[in-house]
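Run log, item B.
One chain of 289 residues. Sequence copied directly from the ordering sheet:
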Amino acid sequence: MTGSTGFIGRHVTAFLIGRGDDVCAVQHPRSQRGAPPGATVVRAPLEASALAEAFRGVDVVVHLAGVVSTVREREFFDVNVEGTRGVAAATRAAGARLIHISSLAAAGPASPSAPRSEDDTPAPIDAYGRSKLEGERVVVDTPDLRWTILRPGVVYGPGDRALLPLFRLAALGVMPLVGRATAAYTFVHVRDLVRTIAAAIDHDLARDTIFVGHPRPVTTRDLLAEVRAAARTGAVMVRVPLALARLAAIAGDVGGKMLGRPLTINSRRYTELAAEGFVCRVDRLRDKL
């Protein structure tokens, strides 16, 4: 498994080891993160030649490693596309199956009234989404490879840091409501995503792409209300016009480049917030996994 030290990867590793599977965790040679308990660790970059030994004797490869946030757009493609190319080639050479974890961002936005299905033409709106879609195409175009592509929506749960800024804002007493009032998103708890990955390991759904999420989409207002309730504060929701958010995003781009790391609000985040939402159907998930 690649990406085993990340938010999702640690949950997947713990679950698979807990049910008795042997897990080989591939870590980048320069990674400073601690290895997941119970996994056999192999240090290798996401290159076919380096992964050949790690994948020898493996039945299924779960590819979770990827870049989700960066100030260098090229990094999305270096890892999410070229890294996937190395993983796909090494998986094929090992005669294993590949469970490739992509993202709803690869499909693009959709409203709650017209959720995306897996058969819709993808239309990603930012570099991250385009890199994930291109990574999917690398998998699909790899000859003689048995694969399943999973596209989770917004993943949350223990260890997630993406929603942490909202909790910090709630503690300060302010909950900014940015974007369209009708926008909504497909969410999935990390434990449900782990169960889906395990089901994909157990069921050979060769050459299938499946959205992963809870059936009911969550509006931005509902999300803020739930965070406020969980934080147990009396934070006030404040409507933020998109024009003001756009200015904050530009400032975030500049600040991110100066600091060498993406800030909470930047142009990519603004593009997502200005969209009609990211909602998908989960019929195929229910029927097949």
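Observations after the first pass:
- The first strand starts at residue 24 and ends at 27.
- Residues 73-94 form the longest helix (22 residues).
Flagged for discussion on Thursday.
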